[in-house]
Amino acid sequence: MVLRQWVICLCTLAFIMGFGFGLANGKVVRKSRIRARVYPTILVDPSGKGNFSTIQSAVDAIPSNNRNWICIYVKAGKYREQVNIPFDKPFIYLKGEGKRKTTVVWNAHDSIATSGTLISQADNFVAKSLSFVNSFNYPMVTYDYNAIKPALAAMISGDKSAFYRCGFIGFQDTLWDVQGRHYFKLCTIQGAIDFIFGAGQSLYERCTISVAAKPLGELAGFITAQGRSNAHDPSGFVFKECNVIGSGQAFLGRPWRDHARVVFFNTSMSSVVVPEGWSAWESIGHESLITFSEHGCNGLGSNTSKRVKWEKKLKPDLLWWLTTSSHKMSSQYAWCVSTCLALFFLGFGLAKKSHGIHSTIRVDQSGNGDFSTIQSAIDSIPKDNTNWIRIDIRAGVYKEQVRIPADKPYIYLKGEGSGKTQIVWGETLLHSATFTSEADNIIAESITFTNSYNYPPKSNGNPIKQALAARISGDKSSFYRCQFFGLQDTLLDDRGRHYFKNCLIQGTTDFIFGMGQSIYEKCTIATISGHVNPKLAGYITAQGRSNPNDDNGFVFKDCKVVGTGKTYLGRAWKGFARVIFYRSSFSSVVVPEGWNAWNAAGHEDQITFVEEGCRGPGSDTSRRVEWVKKMSDEALQTLTSISFIDGGDWLHNLPLNVLGEPEDLVH
């Protein structure tokens, strides 16, 4: 079926589009033998070296009622034009070279329906790595009430539209999220007055919301003006894990229509947010109809003690529905978006990704491989890769800092043994980890990660500081037969679903910490607090679950807790910390109290620290803190089964049988 679609699409495009599309062959990474996928692309280059010199002429060239994804690749530059994607031009993927490099600028304000720099009316539209600017009021230096008018950077009214790493810059009414299901990820939206408005059913994930209200002086701006018109309208704006920053002051939102719905979830808010948070605007007297809500937010602007009294507290089931992608798009569309954003294979029916190894890069310090450093091998992989690429790392000590950025998913790092392939670095603080993984879909096998700043503890005179061996913040990451060596904060299990099997994690203070949703199975957890200060007890975990609706938590299943000195099983980094030790073996290193409330002291009832079916000298619970939880069999089964982290069966689809014995599907 896929092959047939290839043939039909190629023939149709060749017949209809007589001028010919440039086929973007991609870069060939010769040393690693990687070949980027070939897909039909229209190239826009203002220098005249592409198929077109303007974006609109490329859009106009696409046949009406097109049904196959077509990529318009826009070279870096400033394009002074208005871009209109009409109703009959669906399945367009507009890709720039970076939101700071590819910029579309227009200067219009006569009508919000016609003045947007980008007007997207078609369904199934994707844009990535470019910015849309309305320069009428931007940049604004001094505020003139009479001169300020709505001046849109974008108007999005088509259904099933996705924006990835895009910028939307204006002053008033920057982004009109008109209607339809929309997804914005890692985008920047900037403005001062109602700069995200409309009746879209939209999820803004990990976006930067930049308030530019300083020219307003003593007046506060408004981030959102949502237009939900009745109680049965599914629309609403959800801001998930975003950052609200900027200058001046701003309300989080005001209702454009009486049933407005806006949720800020797990979002960081700077001091630009006014204490009241929200304004009822023209819905005064009907505040009960408005759904404005904040959950799990942090930062100087997140203090809700002075918020308007009518701000809503949502029920957990509604909050879950609103903050998951299922609310914003069907599962088919979610799959479509994730595939489109990766974009090695756009245009031919969105073919299913192979779960096997697509190609292999070899790293050997002796010079007999494709690369001599691990980082250079990672750097050679194309951005937004959608095929599993294995990096085989020969035995040796690699003295380098290794980082997998967010746009390099589907990498499988394979060493020759955790005692043979070692990566060593020695710096402090959170962003100086020996290994940093920000991308989704990452595997590491048979590798040791060591932060040598404090480790081994007797070999240097450095004061004890945060010194990370690894920071894992991408989703769907798995580690098999790996070792993590450090002293304080060895492993930052930052966020996302993670699976560790047959691993060794060593340290003394909070050496497994973060907000990950993770299972540690058959792992060895080794405290070395006895080597540092035998009189002080260490802490294995410092978990950061911040509210009862968070899915995250650490589950240790069939593990071993060993080492020297004494240690607590964990302490609460944030108020709703959740850690479970299930069927694990505890040596005598575990202190009788077991746990410490730390930052949640006085709120111990919110903490979920659980031990079930454990054994060994340290498993005696007779002297445990009184607030250790007893969990129902049903809840325990839910949290300790692989389904806790395996939504979508991602672990079953890896090119490594990580749930059983390791076995590559493709050698």
TrEMBL record:
InterPro entries: Pectin_lyas_fold (IPR012334), Pectin_lyase_fold/virulence (IPR011050), Pectinesterase_Asp_AS (IPR033131), Pectinesterase_cat (IPR000070), Pectinesterase_Tyr_AS (IPR018040)
Family: Belongs to the pectinesterase family.
Reactions this protein catalyses: [(1->4)-alpha-D-galacturonosyl methyl ester](n) + n H2O = [(1->4)-alpha-D-galacturonosyl](n) + n methanol + n H(+)
Classification via Pfam families: Pectinesterase
Keywords: Aspartyl esterase, Cell wall, Cell wall biogenesis/degradation, Glycoprotein, Hydrolase, Secreted
Source organism (scientific name): Escallonia herrerae
Protein name per UniProt: Pectinesterase
Ranges for domain Pectinesterase catalytic: 42-311, 362-647
Major localization listed first in the record, in broad terms: secreted
Cell compartment(s), UniProt: Secreted, Cell wall
Signal peptide: none
Keyword Cell wall biogenesis/degradation attached: yes
Gene Ontology molecular-function annotations: pectinesterase activity
SUPFAM superfamilies for this protein: Pectin lyase-like
Keyword Cell wall biogenesis/degradation annotated: yes
